[in-house]
Amino acid sequence: MTFSAILFVLLCLSFVAQEFLPAIEWAYGARLFIVPVVFFCSAVSVPFPVMLMFAFFTGFVWDARHLILVEEVAKSPRFSEMLSANPTFGYSIFLYGLMGALMQGIRPFFRRGRWELPVLMTGVVTALMLTLEYLWISFLRGNFEFHRQIWVTIGASAIFSMIASTVMFIFITWLSKASGYQIRYEGLNMKRSW
Amino acid sequence: MRRINITALIVFVLALVWVFTWKTPTTQRIQAKVGAFFSPFIRTGASVQEKLEGVQTRSPEELAEESSRLKREVEELRIYFKDYEALKKENEDLRRMLQFSKGYPLKLIPANILTRNSSTWWRTATIDRGLRDGIATDATVVTSEGLVGKIAHAWDRESDILFIMDETCPVAAFLEGRNEEGLLKGTRGMLDRTQEMRLTMLPKGTKIDPGTKVYSSGKGGVFPRNFLLGEVVKCNDLELYAEATVKPVVDFEKLKNVFVIDSDQSDPAGGRTSEVRNPK
Question: What is the ipTM of this complex?
């Protein structure tokens, strides 16, 4: 409980920290997404229900801060200036929930002190989330356009996430020890004898 | 799967569906509250970034403030005098023709860009003016060079601009000295600073000389008429319509200061022009 509460505070602080992180111009606006990194690292170390709570909170605040909502203004059908669709509020909650569930799958590795896969997975999940986001937007707007810049942005963001996640995993491990929390794999409890 | 996990998943899905049912005004109110909460961090973050980039001068605070004020005044004056005579004459002619009793003086609200592109797939920036300064959602944002975008959402002390180079912010446009009109849009996924825009829905067979200027037509219902958007680079004939590649006149990456047109004076009916008389 204490550990989850600390992680929640950490998640809140990551939103503040995100405001201080600039976009990298040479990587076409890619940046270190510290909020997703903290969420993904937390998702590995907490039980499934807590992960879902974190996903809801993170996605909610993320959309509230970053999502651009446009209302259609259609004075002239031919020259309407607001026709491109955007995802609805809450889509990040779904994405965070989905990505968090993927991260839950590698809890056994993290529990055994193996960080290679969780670190790699943080990068993969970051890239996957950005790709899904882009595909979702493209789907809503009715056509798919892929340029080299997209892949550079996604790739750079994933690498930044992987680098940051190493520090975050060390910190989370230290936190779990300090708060007396044991990061355990509950999925093993469900093993059946047949 | 354990029962508690299934229960948590069901609750999560129900809560998600509930959020999806919210209408835009509700979510905009939430965004305003969250934006207001993050306001001091956005400002501090912008200040730190500016210092790190070495853009901020090391002169005393008063000098920096004065410099900022003078820059705004210079920008304002550049807007006032740019093509003033030509626009004045055009306006007088139009007023005579349409029996306008009074013109539309625009009130400009100067603003500084704090941060840009807080999200990956939208071309946005945050400015240091908000609702308390008279800024409202959908207000037009300009510089002395041309049209920048619109206010995507405003909260108490800051606002987010959606640049016209974003695909979700198309502008109804016309070509200088010609009758053809089209819709100027950004290209999704083109994230570099040399981004070119597309002027679509031009009549098939349209031939345009490179360098032809593109202006807002005011017919889309959001932006006022006669703001410079860019210059035509090339023109292609597609299956149903012609499409021109346009280089935007504003360098969105270098933008520091912008002006927001006071939304109280908004007249998206197209009668308004970029003529600026007395901003005070």
Answer: 0.82
